[in-house]
Amino acid sequence: MNTGDQHIIILWGFPLFAYLLGSIPWGVVLTRLFTSSDIRQQGSGNIGATNVSRVAGPTLGLLTFAGDILKGAVPIYLALKFAGQHQGVNDFFLAIVGLAAFFGHLYPLFMKFKSGGKGVATAAGCFGVLAPLACLAALSAFIIFLLLSRRISAGSLASAVVLPIAAWFSTHSWEITACAAIMSVFIFIRHLDNIKRLIAGTEPTFSDKHKS
Which of 71, 186, 205, 211 could staple 150 via S-S, CB 3.0–4.6 A? Predict the structure, then answer.
């Protein structure tokens, strides 16, 4: 096998690695390790940090949040390191790696492509490395709407609106912007129930111990 073939194998191994890492359901793993609960049968049934925090406490919630962020951050970081050492790595490739991690979180292989998370933390991990200024803008929107509404879902939706806009102005890359836009669309899809409750005025606040 020549160097070029090895380069191609390594290059396209990144999306597979990103998807597999994204598929690790940290919310399920941590609650099974440290509690007797199946997070999928508790609270909202979502495996993300918000539901874990409500059901199993803030410590496991923060650990789940950190794990979900790293799902996005680690593959992008490694891909960028690889890009610095090899030619032929472009924004399209980085966008594919980011989307692979993101969709691994939404449709995890290790859970038969079901019961994935909503994608906010993993998207933040991707763009925290890929486009830090865009991530900072989205984080600012999240915090503002969280403080105004006391609802994590409202902050998440606001950040999803801001992310692709900020990605374009900070990178001027259509590939990176398209990646952000795709993530934002799926974040909205995963929050459809939350949107209905927000409209109805029944969406719980962060401190409530039920739906998320």
Answer: 205
Q: What does each C-alpha distance from 206 to 51, 136, 149, 162, 212 come to in angstroms?
A: 10, 22, 9, 21, 8
pLDDT in tens, 144-183: 999 999 999 999 999 999 999 999 999 999 999 999 999 9
- CA distances in angstroms from 111 to 26, 50, 65, 108, 135, listed in the order given: 11, 19, 18, 5, 28
pTM value? 0.90
pLDDT digits (tens, 9 = 90+) for 37-83: 778 887 777 888 888 888 888 899 999 999 999 999 999 999 888 77
List of residues 6+ apart from 162 with CB closer than 8 A: 137, 138, 140, 141
Q: How far apart are CA 86 and CA 21, in angstroms?
A: 23
Boundaries of every domain in the chain: 3-200
Distance CA 59, CA 61 (A): 5
| pLDDT value for 18 | 97
100 conformational bin, left if phi > 0, alpha if psi -120 to 50, beta if neither: alpha
- List Cα–Cα distances, 142 to 20, 93, 185, in angstroms: 28, 28, 16
